[in-house]
Input
Amino acid sequence: MRVEFRKTFEKDLRKLKDKNLLAKLREAIEAIEQADSLDTITNLKKLKGDDSYFRIRIGDYRVGLFLAGETLLFVRVMHRREFYRYFP
Output
């Protein structure tokens, strides 16, 4: 799949200091780039309310995604206590 990153995602990424989390996030991004469809992506769950919003669970953190055609947009990455408050 085609992958793009929003500025908010990049800003959230700069705030993260946990090396293990960053490594797992890198693996998730690489897996998404190689995936043929949404069904093959692990830990991906559709959010209620809109068909285009998804999240990936990585420990206590969540990655917010938006599907626009064949492109998966990385929108946010935050701790779960903040994620559901600010995304989508």
About this structure: The chain has one domain: 2-86. DSSP finds three helices and five strands in the chain. The two ends are 21 Å apart (CA to CA).
